[in-house]
From TrEMBL:
Enzyme Commission identifier(s): 3.7.1.3
Ranges for domain Aminotransferase class V: 33-357
N6-(pyridoxal phosphate)lysine: residues carrying this PTM: K226
Family: Belongs to the kynureninase family.
Alphabetized GO MF terms: transaminase activity
Catalytic activity, reaction form: 3-hydroxy-L-kynurenine + H2O = 3-hydroxyanthranilate + L-alanine + H(+); L-kynurenine + H2O = anthranilate + L-alanine + H(+)
Protein name: Kynureninase
Pathway(s) of this molecule: Amino-acid degradation; L-kynurenine degradation; L-alanine and anthranilate from L-kynurenine: step 1/1; Cofactor biosynthesis; NAD(+) biosynthesis; quinolinate from L-kynurenine: step 2/3
Cross-referenced Pfam families: Aminotran_5 (PF00266)
Key word Hydrolase present: yes
Protein residues bound to pyridoxal 5'-phosphate: T98, S99, F126, P127, T128, D129, D200, H203, Y225, W255, T281
Role description: Catalyzes the cleavage of L-kynurenine (L-Kyn) and L-3-hydroxykynurenine (L-3OHKyn) into anthranilic acid (AA) and 3-hydroxyanthranilic acid (3-OHAA), respectively.
Phylogenetic classification of the source organism: Bacteria, Bacillati, Actinomycetota, Actinomycetes, Propionibacteriales
PANTHER family hit by this protein: KYNURENINASE
Organism in which the protein naturally occurs: Aeromicrobium halocynthiae
Length: 398
């Protein structure tokens, strides 16, 4: 135990990202926050930025704010997120929820492959991805096909991909196991079959290096409230490759997607650029919070964040393996994201008892405890404190 704390202290002392933790609001009652992959911590800069926005900009500028910069935020902040995920300017917007972005991307992708009649989704993907794929398939007269991840976290599309496939929706990091898919390889695989790919980057954006343009990805989207720390319900981003944008028709073409927003034209003409991905009035406070979170990740550097994430997950895996627990997260660092998941009898009860000790993990149905490690805010000591609490609880139930 003492050795372990010393190891953690050494890792913290050598951590080039250690200073970032102080940039966040830290609740002294929380001994270990291992849920940054559901909701990231609150950056101090965001507190200040939103106070200024509410008081001086909303309060002081009122309607004038729209012509003083608010109206450009969905594309400006979109480009900032785009830089983090390897997307050149002009292809990314920030606006709706992730669920809405998934629906828009799937609809648009299906329309780009009108002669094909199948949509593929991972069998155990996050519910919103599966539900929306079902709905889009039903509404567009397509058939939905599912494919399961292998036990080692990899994905083989051979049985589901063919000349009927219009679009494949995939999550870069699996929300349960933390398995990280090979985005460039799978994108090529889907393209070889003549289909399009939509990537859900919720659990990888801000913590795994991503190069969307380089990988030739068609469409992608993701949350901003996890590793980008933009707050509960902060708006999601949606990317469409420049080659698709001129032909792309999305299913919710509201006035914010029209070519001249304030022309109030009788006939709808889509904006020629990424604004055609928008629908209605954006949430300005949310966009400003995304901007702060993205700037912090950008300053710290995604490569450095990824390097710390691999060390954090490696440390936690070592501790769980030493205890002989049933870890479902891949051991190969190249195949895992930034959370580690354990299958446990009584997982819900274990998570609740950890929470009573001030350690906050996630419980995921039916029997999983998920430990999220968010490199800007999670110290090595915090990770060890969290795992020790978990092991204490598990041992006491044996
Ligand atoms: C893979 C994945 N997709 C989508 C979502 C969420 O979508 P929304 O922000 O619309 O609730 C989550 C998490 O909530 C997720 O983990
Ligand atoms: N988006 C969430 C919410 O609105 C409430 C509670 C949790 C969430 C989450 O983000 C869950 C998360 N995507 C997951 O992987 O489980």
């Amino acid at each position: 135990m003492i050795d372990l704390r010393r190891r953690a202290a050494r890792l913290d002392a050598a951590d080039p990202l250690a200073r970032w933790r102080r940039e966040f609001v830290l609740d002294p009652d929380v001994m270990a926050y291992l849920d940054g992959n559901s909701l990231g911590r609150l950056p101090r800069r965001t507190v200040e930025r939103l106070q200024t926005f509410v008081r001086d900009e909303w309060g002081g500028r009122l309607i004038r704010g729209w012509s003083e910069g608010w109206a450009e935020l969905p594309t400006a902040v979109g480009d900032e997120v785009g830089r983090l995920v390897g997307a050149a300017a002009g292809q990314t917007v920030v606006g709706d929820s992730t669920s809405i972005a998934i629906a828009k991307a799937l609809h648009a992708a299906v329309r780009l492959r009108p002669e094909r009649d199948e949509i593929v989704v991972a069998a155990h993907d996050f519910p919103t991805d599966r539900y929306l794929a079902q709905r889009v398939a039903a509404d567009t007269g397509r058939t939905l096909r599912t494919v399961g991840l292998r036990d080692d976290g990899t994905l083989d599309l051979t049985d589901v991909l063919g000349e009927r496939t219009a679009v494949v929706l995939l999550s870069h990091v699996d929300y349960r196991s933390g398995a990280l898919l090979d985005l460039p390889r799978l994108t090529r695989r889907v393209h070889d079959a003549g289909a399009l790919v939509v990537w859900d980057l919720c659990h990888s954006v801000g913590v795994v290096p991503i190069a969307l343009d380089q990988a030739d990805v068609d469409l992608a989207l993701g949350c901003t409230y996890k590793y980008l720390n933009a707050g509960p319900g902060a708006p999601a981003f949606l990317y469409a490759a420049a080659r698709h944008l001129p032909h792309l028709q999305q299913p919710l073409p509201g006035w914010w997607s029209a070519d001249d927003l304030f022309a109030m034209a009788d006939d709808y003409r889509p904006a020629p650029d990424a604004r055609r991905l928008l629908s209605g009035t954006p949430n300005v406070a949310g966009l400003l919070a995304v901007r702060e979170g993205v700037a912090m990740v950008d300053e710290a550097g995604v490569e450095a964040i990824r390097a710390k994430s691999v060390l954090l997950t490696g440390l936690v895996l070592d501790l769980l393996d030493a205890e002989g627990l049933d870890v479902v997260t891949p051991r190969d660092p190249a195949s895992r994201g930034s959370h580690v998941t354990v299958r446990l009898p009584g997982a819900r009860d274990v998570a609740e008892r950890m929470a009573e000790r001030g350690v906050l993990p996630d419980f995921r149905e039916p029997d999983l405890v998920r430990l999220g490690l968010s490199p800007l805010t999670t110290s090595f000591e915090e990770a060890v404190v969290g795992v020790e609490a978990m092991l204490d609880v598990v041992r006491s139930t044996r």
